[in-house]
Predict the 3D structure of the following.
Amino acid sequence: MSFGAPLALIGLAALPVLAAWYVHAGRQRRRAAEVFASPRMRASVAPWRPGWRRHAPMLVTLVAVAVLIVALARPQRTVAVPVERAQIMLATDVSGSMLATDVTPSRLMAARAAARRFLEGVPDKVNVGLLAFNSTPKVLQSPTTDRDALHAALSRLTASGGTATGEAIRSAVTSLRRAPTVGGKRPPSAIVLLSDGASTRGVDPVQAAREAGRLKIPITTVTLGTAEGTITVPRPDGNGSETKRVPPDEASLRRIAQVSGGRAYTATTAAGLSSVYEKLGSQLGHKREPREITSGFAGAAAVLLLTGAALSLRWFGRLI
């Protein structure tokens, strides 16, 4: 919790003074009572003593004053609100290694299912686009709020070829920067880059990520797959096929996220990937903003003040 006017909290220093005054006043009342009755006769003069009830109304009042001072400091709590005009580009690796089945049923099928979960978690007003990349990048859907168009684009993902991660980043940045400006400002943008291997051609992906970072477009990377992943490929001599290992390149993707100002995740199962994408849908589609909760504290202070006064009237026939 934060405060819009924290200097008002200095008023809390007055509470110990009020408590000390209350204790001092109580002692004066006891001294005054001793003037009119000796200790041996006090039981017959005042047979009933309020005990803890004597102090309860004042204690409630002091708590009410403390809550009221906090209310004057304009307390705030941070809440997640949808990002207006935000746009997110899902850049999905569709190289041949995405056919590996170490992630059930395959890396590509798991990526497609996770992207659908991502769309469920993103607010409806957030624009989402889809880019597929292998040896070359291809924008399958420009950022849009049309979820049906995005689902249709996801169904067109097919795996083949190499991996040009740097080219994919530049293509995603270009697509995001086509969005019209409002008041001279472009909408908040981000890239979610899913890949399972190292870049094999094209520009340096770290350099491309650094360029995206300078444009305030962070890249969140998701590394998919396990070290045991394999695919079957034709032999170089054309005689039959062979099994080739396709371990993920987590270090490179982590570096891409770091230089662009994004975050890096790793998923080794379909369930884990869906969980990551679901979380990202909520995180990237919302921003944290402070919201004042002064009225709640003011209301609580009023209730406490009324409670203290009611207790005092009921037990002693007077206000505090």
About this structure: The mean pLDDT is 85. DSSP finds ten helices and eleven strands in the chain. The first strand starts at residue 2 and ends at 3.
